[in-house]
Every structure is written in C-alpha cells, then in structure tokens.
Recover the amino acids of this structure.
C-alpha cells in the first residue's frame, strides 16, 4: 500500500478524493496494489463536500500531512504561489514525492522546485497543471519523446474559449458573455487571469519547457487577452472563412522559439477551430509523427482530478519498484535555444480600419502598407456612408510584426482614419 496526503480540498481536491475512494477497487485491480489517501489538510474541515470520508481523514494542520512519516506522496491542490511553494519545498525536504496542479507556481518557480526535487531524489507529478483531463504532459514527455517538436498550438483556457464561442454563435458583446460565464461558473469573480491570457501563458511556459527544454519561460511570453475582441471582428473573420480563438503558440522558426498568447484568426476548416465552449485542445506538429490533436475537458473537478490521480499512480508504481525519476525532469536547457523577439515574428494579419467613405482612402492606406512591405490578400467593405467612417477590413499576406506596428501607427495618423486600427494575427499555413 502507498499512502498519499493532500493539501487543499476545493474543486479539484474533491474530484481527486472522489476518484481515489470510489474507484479504489478499479485502481487496485489495474496497478496491483492499493493507493490509500490517509490525510487531507484543509482550512474548513466541517464544510459538506458531498463525500463521506473515513473518520479522522480531515485535518486543519498542514504539518499533519507534511511530517507524517507514513505519507510518501504529497498532493498540493491549494493553488497560488505562497504558501503552496513553501508546502511543496517542505514536502521535498522531508523526502516526499509531490503531485501538483499548480501551473502558476511551476511557470514562475518551476526551476527552483524541480532542482530541489532532483537534489532530494523525489519526483514531481504535474499532469493536471495543463489542460485538465487531457494527458498532454505524458504525451510530450513520453509519447512524442522521439520527435523534434516544430510547433504547439493550444486552446488551453476554457473560460476564454467559452466566451469567444458564445460571441461567435450569438453575436453578443464580450461584457455580456463574461457576465453569463460568471453566473454559470465558467469565469471567476475576478476573471483577469483567464480573459487576459495569463492563465494560458502559465500553461504555455510548461509546454514550452517540455517541448523545447526552455526552463519555464513565463516572463518571456508575449501575452494579449480577448477583452478587446468585438462581435464585429468575429463576423468579418467569418466572412473571410475564419474563426477567432485565444491561442497559446510555441513554435520553432529559424532556430528560434516563438512564445506568444493572443487572439488568433484561424481557418474554419482547421480541426482546432471546431473546439468550442469550455473545451481545450492542443495541436502538436512533430517532425516524425506530423500533426496530432488532443481534445477534451480542460478543467473541472473530475477531469482534473483524473489527471492528479494518474500522477499519484505513476509515482506509486516507481516507489514500488524502488526507482525515482523514471521519466526525468531536466531543468537546464537541453540545447542552445533563443526566444524570438515578438517584433521579429512573421504572420498574416487582419486589420479593421475605421476610414472615411470617400475616393482614394484605400489607396492611401495600401500605400502606407506597401511602404512597410505589407501586401494585401483581400479587402472587405460593407455598406456605403459617403463622408462618414465605415469599417474597412484587410487581410494581409505574411508580414513582420515590427513593420505592422509601425504601419498602423502611421495609418492611424492619417486624416481619413477616424479611430484606432484593430489588428489580429492570423495563423493559416495553407495561405503562407
């Protein structure tokens, strides 16, 4: 029997506990021994979570988990940085293996935590830190270990994906859908981490580490959220054959790694563009396997709890075989890699100009674009209001980010342009 102790008894902790207790017999049959959840440390030991627990399992004393010599695996599920980091480091110091779903902590302090674990000869399980019930960590660490990863594209925040899906399907404003998402429990009271792309960037830092050996580069990721996306842009994108998604992107170009999170326009016929609502998906392009897509529920008590339990089982198997780090975590760069400056990336772009409806306006705008080596692929202008501002939509061929920003700055100073230009990056390999 392998004993585990858990710190935190919220949504994910409840799901994890339910799986460990209700599927105890199935787990024993599949792995050949028993996983025993011995202790759960939580601030409120009297709250009813709908689970009948054995007498004495709950405690309000975290040290009852961290210092118990019989507990071999500590599961941290409180989230945040402090005190979660302190608990994990203490567990490691005490020679205990750790399982965590804490993407924010790993993205910012992963090097310190994994180095401490290596020095102590214990394992860190973190499958639940990215994409909930999708086993994407195991896929990259083991299933695609032989591949050179060329690109990773992820819809890895269910809140943002739910909001963009509702805006697309119902033609409603961002603020209206956000309120709806909060009422349904898809969005927090303070949704900043989700809607501004920070949560996706935390997860991308972990994926980039796994795919490219970059030690948790959260501070180097370009981040842009969805709060400025309008139904108007979603509709124009649809007219052009595209959908708008919040993508986390890591890809290797010219020996450098691009790391960015931002709203992205992608073709409707791409599989990942069909991922709607609160669901997640991760697309990986490997040199040996080619394109693969992994889809499922990215959050919630049971999907994320399943990922936590899978880590507990993997570590328990290693304990039984008296091995540590069967799949090692390396916190030094596997090779010399450089993160590409955002100004140097190339992409297709969607522009929406607010321009006066009069002759010669398009030629003025296209002239500026041409001066910065930006060529036009297609143009949409709907409706006529002579002498008034109308939306003018332009889709470009590939251009450099730095050139795009300088061109827009110049265009927005033109007397025929009445408002700031909206631009969204486009990922479309077929058009490149």
């Amino acid at each position: 029997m392998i004993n585990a102790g858990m710190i935190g008894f919220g949504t994910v902790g409840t799901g994890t506990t339910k799986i460990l207790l209700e599927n105890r017999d199935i787990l024993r049959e599949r792995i050949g021994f028993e996983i025993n959840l011995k202790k759960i440390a939580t601030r409120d030991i009297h709250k009813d979570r709908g689970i009948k627990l054995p007498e004495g399992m709950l405690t309000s004393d975290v040290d009852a988990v961290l210092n118990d010599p019989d507990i071999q695996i500590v599961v941290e599920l409180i989230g945040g940085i402090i005190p979660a980091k302190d608990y994990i480091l203490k567990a490691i110091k005490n020679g205990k293996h750790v399982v965590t779903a804490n993407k924010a902590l790993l993205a910012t302090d992963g090097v310190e935590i994994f180095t401490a674990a290596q020095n102590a000869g214990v394992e860190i399980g973190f499958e639940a830190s990215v994409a909930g019930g999708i086993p994407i960590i195991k896929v990259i660490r083991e299933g695609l270990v032989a591949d050179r990863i060329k690109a990773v594209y992820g819809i890895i925040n269910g809140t943002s994906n739910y909001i963009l899906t509702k805006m697309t399907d119902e033609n409603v404003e961002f603020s209206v859908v956000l309120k709806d998402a909060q009422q349904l429990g898809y969005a927090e009271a303070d949704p900043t981490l989700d809607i501004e792309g920070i949560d996706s960037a935390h997860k991308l830092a972990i994926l980039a580490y796994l795919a490219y050996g970059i030690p948790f580069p959260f501070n180097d990721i370009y981040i842009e959220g969805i709060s400025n996306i309008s139904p108007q842009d979603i509709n124009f994108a649809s007219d052009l054959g595209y959908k708008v998604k919040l993508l986390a992107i890591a890809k290797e170009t010219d020996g450098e790694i691009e790391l960015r999170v931002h709203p992205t326009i992608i073709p409707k016929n791409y599989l990942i563009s069909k991922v709607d609502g609160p669901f997640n998906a991760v697309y990986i392009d490997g040199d040996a396997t080619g394109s693969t897509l992994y889809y499922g529920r990215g959050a919630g008590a049971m999907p994320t709890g399943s990922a936590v339990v899978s880590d507990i089982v993997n570590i328990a198997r290693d304990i039984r075989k008296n091995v540590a780090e069967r799949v090692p975590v390396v916190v030094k760069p596997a090779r010399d890699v450089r993160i590409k400056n955002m100004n140097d990336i190339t992409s297709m772009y969607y522009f929406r100009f607010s321009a006066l409806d009069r002759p010669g306006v398009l030629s003025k705008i296209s002239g500026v674009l041409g001066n910065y080596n930006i060529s036009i692929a297609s143009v949409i202008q709907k409706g006529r209001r002579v002498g008034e501002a109308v939306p003018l939509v332009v889709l470009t061929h590939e251009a450099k980010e730095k050139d795009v920003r300088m061109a827009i700055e110049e265009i927005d100073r033109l007397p025929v342009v009445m408002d700031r230009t909206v631009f969204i990056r486009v990922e479309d390999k077929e058009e490149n």
The chain has a mean pLDDT of 94. The chain is about 35% helix and 25% strand. Residues 136-297 form a domain with the Dihydrodipicolinate Reductase; domain 2 fold (CATH 3.30.360.10).
